[in-house]
Design goal:
The chain is α/β, with parallel strands linked by helices. The chain has three domains: 211 residues, 3-Layer(aba) Sandwich (Rossmann fold), CATH 3.40.50.300; 160 residues, Rossmann fold; 146 residues, Arc Repressor Mutant, subunit A (Orthogonal Bundle), CATH 1.10.10. The chain has 21 helices and 17 strands. The strands form four sheets. It has a seven-stranded parallel beta sheet. Helix 13 links the parallel strand 10 and strand 11. The chain is globular.
Length: 620
């Protein structure tokens, strides 16, 4: 074989290999597309199955074999004459050995749904709960109701573990509380459950805060994924999942993870009619925000109890320090505090020694203080679910309470910079839509997010937009602003400068370096209004956020959106606003719902809270 023959054959093989590689790539892409389509089909089927599920009327009967006993226990042990909304349906379904997902607002009475059946059946039910502190609170309550209950965990002494195991095997416990970590990592406990199961005395698994299973949820916990083994290891044992918050997507994922596709799903309305929802502007000057907190705590909320949520442990410590300097009885609460310190703070808050705790989301799950009159989010929460659940710690006594969100775009950008996937980005975007809306009922926005069915009339003037409707809302054309911002970003990029929100506003309002400013005069509207316009353009995805990294933190830079063609807008980008914006043209158009519009065709909120045009001091 001479060299030319060798080269020709070698090239022939190369061509065949390249051809096959190209075919392989096409096949792999096709396979990926088909798999995605298959999963999307399954998701859509599951979503439609949930949305079109039958009503709960079949579970409301009072002629089950256990019905008389259920009502007797309700009166004798729990001292109630009647059930609250959906409790009876959930109890009948779980006593019928059905898997059940119960979504009921905070304070709606979820605990009774597993506590009462535990007395009826007399066998062992396992309650899986995320926090030891929450378990301890529940055990204290159960003793009042005459329910034999215990917990076993990493803090339990060896003798205590043996005693509890013996009680479980002898059927002397109705409820055994564990954390998901204990379930996943303790073989001896699983062996005990297997023995009880084989003896046909394992009644049900109750998974508290079941939304923690789902990565769609706001409080995903990896240890909850280990609960996927329950159906395989203990077939026939029903699962009762409990949560205060779950979107339809979260419900679908819970069903998939726990292998309960035919679970009876019972949802109570999310509406908490006694909670007043509002969003106020958190000004750039920190002292203004501190002034606001001082005034409302010393005046409007004097002698009342509440929670102030902050984003980080550092924020909690610093805010608590500043408020203490102003003679306010507050304390920080976060996961990094020692157990005894957290318990001491919790106790002092519970007995009203402390007016408020300054807390991360580590504080609140399972908190059952009925007289919380205010929940203030000092920084923007990361999702609407988080906002709803954390606000839900107020007003459990049924009396009116305030849920205030202090919004600024800088806090939101910090949250966005810390997102790790598209799901988290979507959650952060949803809260932005809620915060910068100008007129829509807050309850209506929350209900839409949870696929619930509320009308603005259900609000009864219990949100800022319904209580103080603004008849002066105008529709402005902000396309010139988008052009200016795109030009500013391009100018900075040419000089290898990244624009944070502050730098962008500085350059737009002629406060930054001269070589990063556009020619002409600065905008006639205020800097605060300029920040609102940037938020609106981000909300509509006409601008984007790009992450940057320093040695100590992740940064958020304002950037263009490459997929946006400004020529396609025909000279108009319409934005509603609640006060006069000098220098921008007003569009005299028929009333339209701008909230429905978006560049992607999805329904997105777009405009600012009425109160964003006001200083914080006016809200006191």
């Amino acid at each position: 074989m001479d060299e030319s023959d060798f080269t020709e054959q070698l090239n022939n093989y190369d061509r065949q290999i390249q051809n096959l590689e190209e075919q392989k790539l096409k096949i792999l892409n096709k396979l990926k597309t088909l798999k995605q389509a298959k999963e999307e089909l399954r998701l859509q089927y599951s979503l439609s199955k949930i949305k079109n599920r039958p009503g709960i009327s079949e579970w409301l009967g009072k002629d089950y074999v256990w019905s008389k006993e259920v009502y007797k226990i309700l009166k004798s042990n729990f001292k109630f004459d009647e059930f609250r909304s959906n409790q009876l349906a959930a109890i009948n379904a779980t006593l019928s050995k059905q898997d059940v997902l119960l979504i009921m607002p905070t304070g709606g009475g979820k605990s009774l749904v597993y506590q009462l059946p535990a007395i009826v059946t007399g066998n062992v039910s396992v309650v899986i709960s995320p926090l030891l502190s929450l378990i301890e609170d529940q055990l204290m309550a159960l003793r009042k109701f005459g329910i034999a209950a215990a917990t076993v965990n990493s803090n339990s002494a060896t003798s205590e573990k043996k005693e509890i195991t013996a009680k479980m095997l002898e059927n002397k416990l109705n409820l055994i509380f564990v954390t998901p970590e204990w379930m996943a990592k303790t073989k001896s406990f699983m062996n005990t459950l297997t023995k009880i199961y084989n003896a046909k005395r394992l009644e049900r698994f109750i998974i508290d805060e079941v939304h923690c299973c789902s990565q769609w949820g706001h409080d995903f916990r990896r240890d909850y994924l280990a609960l996927s083994i329950l159906k395989g290891q203990f077939p026939g044992v029903p699962i009762l999942g409990l949560t205060a918050t779950a979107t339809t997507n979260v419900m679908v994922e819970i069903q998939k993870i726990l292998e309960i596709p035919d679970a009876v799903i019972i949802t109570a309305p999310y509406n908490r009619p006694n909670l007043f929802y509002k969003v106020i502007n958190k000004l750039e000057n920190k002292s203004d925000s501190l002034d606001y907190l001082e005034k409302v705590l010393k005046n409007k909320y004097k002698f009342q109890s509440g929670i102030i949520y902050a984003a980080t442990q550092k924020d909690c410590e610093e805010l608590a320090t500043e408020l203490r300097k102003r003679d306010l009885q507050v304390a920080p609460y976060h996961a990094n505090l020692e157990g005894p310190v957290k318990s001491k703070i919790h106790k002092k808050w519970a007995d009203n020694t402390y007016q408020a705790v300054i807390a991360t989301i580590a504080f609140g799950m399972g908190i059952d203080k009925p007289d919380v009159k205010f929940v203030i989010h000092y920084t923007v929460p990361k999702s609407l679910e988080g906002l709803y659940q954390e606000s839900g710690r107020a007003g459990r006594d049924g009396k009116n309470a305030d849920c205030t969100l202090m919004f600024n775009l800088t806090d939101w950008l910090r949250n966005f910079s810390m997102t790790q996937n598209t799901r988290e980005e979507k959650s952060v975007n949803d809260i932005l839509h809620y915060c910068i809306n100008t007129a829509t009922c807050r309850r209506k926005m929350i209900s839409k997010y949870f696929d619930d069915d509320w009308r603005s009339s259900d609000c009864m003037q219990m949100c800022d937009h319904c209580k103080n409707p603004n008849d002066n809302i105008q529709t402005y054309n902000v396309i010139s602003c988008l052009k200016d911002i795109i030009n500013l970003i391009g100018l900075a990029s040419n000089k290898e400068v990244n624009l944070t929100l502050k730098k962008l506003l500085d350059n737009w309002f002629k406060l930054g370096p001269k070589n990063l400013q556009l020619s002409g005069t600065q905008p006639k509207f205020t800097r605060q209004q300029g920040e609102h316009i940037v938020g609106f353009l981000l909300c509509k995805r006409y601008l984007s956020v790009r992450r940057g990294y320093s040695l100590v933190t992740t940064l958020a830079y304002i950037d263009t959106n490459p997929s946006v063609d400004i020529k396609s807008f025909n000279g108009k980008i319409l934005m509603e606003y609640s006060s006069n914006i000098r220098g921008l043209p007003i569009e005299n158009i028929d009333k339209i719902d701008l909230i429905e519009e978006s560049v992607s065709g999805k329904r997105l909120s777009e405009s600012h809270s009425n109160s964003h045009s006001k200083k914080i001091k006016k809200d006191v």
